[in-house]
Amino acid sequence: MTKRDRIKRTATILFAANGIRNTKIEDIANVLGMAKGGFYYYFKSKEELLLEIMDNSVISRKEFLKEVGDLDVPFEEKLKMIVRRRLTLKDDRYNLFLFAKIYENGEINLTYDEYMKRDIIFSEFLNNNREHIKEEYRSEIEKIRTMLSSSLTTLLLYLITQTGIEVVDEDSYKRMVEKYATIDITREIEMFYNLFLKSMLN
């Protein structure tokens, strides 16, 4: 892992654990054992760092949805794959943890607002598969996207709570992820699909 990537990982977990506003550049530098000036060698500000973290997430999601869209499998299976990705919390998926905590804490700032405005990837995916959605819902794609995103984030936060581990740093994040891995995600996917997705499909 490069130093730049190490900074992003550490910052992401600290942002999620302690809040973006409460996390100072000094906090990130201290955890990494580097001088504050070392941080500025890689990033001009906390806002630039946060923007890169979010941009990386957009790129990753876009690539994933393109791969899913190209698969020769039923549409409902594609939706389940998307749900699985949104509920799969691994050590290297700390961005997902950050976005869930931002949602939970209501910690919205201009950087995150801008990210959400550009978060049209899933809407595009649904629009590209309109023939699989019941006609009465086709004019409500953006509303559906918002409802599904909120519901999945709420479920993810609930499952994180079920681990019983409060994340305050990278070590506790790792412990939480290890405990999270014991959850039956397949069961959660089926439940979510049956409750929120099945009724809107042809």
From TrEMBL:
GO terms for molecular function: DNA binding. This is Transcriptional regulator, TetR family. Residues 1-61 form the HTH tetR-type domain. InterPro entries: Homeodomain-like_sf, HTH-type_Tx_Regulator, HTH_TetR. Keywords: DNA-binding. Residues 24-43 bind DNA. The keyword DNA-binding applies.
